[in-house]
Specification:
- With 429 residues, the chain is mostly helical.
- α8 runs antiparallel to α12.
- The chain starts with a helix and ends in a 34-residue tail after the last helix.
- 55% of the residues are buried.
Length: 429
């Protein structure tokens, strides 16, 4: 290969020798994570405006907005099934480019049914890009480099929850709902360009181990594992609680006595700022204290924040939201890390099942808690969220890998990336 051609095949991600190269690589990974998932929860910040525009109830609009989780659940299983047959680089690039299409079409969606279908299409593209990126990172970096790469990906994903919601609220308030979706479509395309000049130009990596003879056999093995079943259930409960909180609290914020405007709602989501700092530390905490104590502590922290959401005080609600965010993100990181360790084979398919359960929990939570919110009010909705966290805490009792005796040292493994959208990344071998 000619020197020029070789240079064209190089990537920013290949620069590892210097501190500048590490910083550049970290920035690319974080930005890729950000543009991949920024559409997922950004629309929640404008839920009241969308409900008014389509003249529907909070429950109906909440379900439509969070229908993207249905697409993500389906795509998570599909990518896990076909993972080794898909070129990660081109798959990520195509997924982000195609994502811009349903995002742009949301600006002209004529009715709620069309809006819902477009959100499902967004979910399919986001989950494809996300899971393929995680697979790429697992194959691209060795154990020594994995911690920094994972921390960057976690930070980019958590940051998308904060910055995406803030941008969405600001643009919708200043320029209208249609402009909001067009802006995010442009951001999707910018993400595809970023991937083209970085990830898509790296040399193709080879899987470390061939697939089992049948993906279904691997899935059956995972589902027979009681520890993995518990982790899958915890993932379901975590997004059930997270989406229930951060979907319907938007209506509480705009109603009396809080009566916030659209711009003010955007600023509310600075409550995710602490999570950007705390979530990447989950691997270290698990290594020090073990999986069970970390999971229970995280879920308890989230539960402590729930009563504050019922008080007629903005400061109390903000503290409550911050605690719920930190607790659920940390619990998610703990559970996803456990999946990577508990799976006895084909960890990619175990992650796919976990991802599907996680997003299914979000969809079910939106539907059930939406009806509770419409019929019984916010207090009953918060009670349902608390019940979900309690079930997750009960399931956490099973988070012990046989033979480890729950010793913290047994959890000293490569950290696992976790996000509000629930993907996992660890040693994929």
């Amino acid at each position: 290969m000619a020197p020029a051609a070789h240079a064209a095949r190089s990537s920013l991600l290949d620069v590892r020798a210097s501190s500048w190269g590490v910083l550049l690589r970290t920035s690319v990974i974080g930005l890729t994570a950000f543009v991949t998932l920024v559409d997922l929860f950004a629309t929640q910040a404008i839920l009241p405006s969308l409900a008014h525009a389509y003249d529907v109830t909070p429950a109906a609009m909440g379900f439509a907005v969070n229908a993207s989780t249905m697409g993500m659940a389906v795509a998570g299983l599909a990518v896990a099934f076909f993972s080794r047959r898909i070129d990660r680089r081109s798959g990520i690039l195509v997924s982000l480019a195609v994502l811009s299409v349903p995002t742009a079409l949301l600006s002209v969606a004529p009715d709620l049914t069309t809006f819902t279908m477009l959100r499902i299409a967004q979910g399919l593209c986001m989950a494809s890009a996300f899971t393929l990126t995680l697979a790429y990172l697992g194959e691209e970096f060795g154990a020594a480099e994995a911690r920094g790469a994972i921390a960057a990906y976690v930070t980019g994903n958590v940051g998308s929850n904060l910055i995406g919601r803030l941008i969405s609220a600001c643009i919708a308030d200043q320029f209208g709902l249609a402009s909001n979706f067009l802006f995010f479509a442009a951001l999707n395309l910018a993400g595809a360009v970023l991937v083209y000049f970085t990830i898509a130009r790296t040399a193709r990596t080879q899987p470390s181990r061939p697939l089992a003879s049948s993906p279904f056999a691997a899935w059956a093995e995972h589902l027979r594992n009681p520890q993995l079943r518990a982790a899958f259930g915890i993932g379901f409960c975590i997004l059930f609680a997270f989406i229930g909180t951060f979907t319907y609290v938007n209506f509480v914020l705009v109603w009396p006595p809080l009566s916030l405007g659209m711009m003010e709602i955007g600023l509310v989501y600075f409550v995710f700022l602490p999570s950007i700092v705390t979530t990447p530390l989950a691997g270290l905490v698990v290594a020090r204290f073990g999986t069970q104590p970390t999971a229970w502590g995280s879920l308890t922290l989230a539960a402590v924040g729930l009563p504050l959401l019922l008080l007629p005080s903005l400061s109390a609600v903000l503290i409550g939201l911050m605690l719920v965010g930190v607790g659920t993100f940390f619990a998610q990181a703990t559970a996803t890390g456990f999946v990577g360790r508990a799976a006895t084979g084909d960890r990619g398919s175990a992650s796919g099942i976990y991802l599907a359960c996680y997003f299914l929990g979000g969809l079910v939570g939106t539907a059930i808690l939406g009806q509770v919110f419409d019929r019984l009010g916010w207090a009953a909705c918060v009670a349902g969220i608390l019940a979900s966290l309690a079930v997750a805490a009960l399931l956490a009792a099973r988070l012990i890998i046989p033979g480890t005796h729950s010793a913290p040292e047994a959890d000293r493994v490569i950290p696992v990336a976790s996000t509000a959208n629930g993907s996992t990344f660890g040693d994929s071998r």
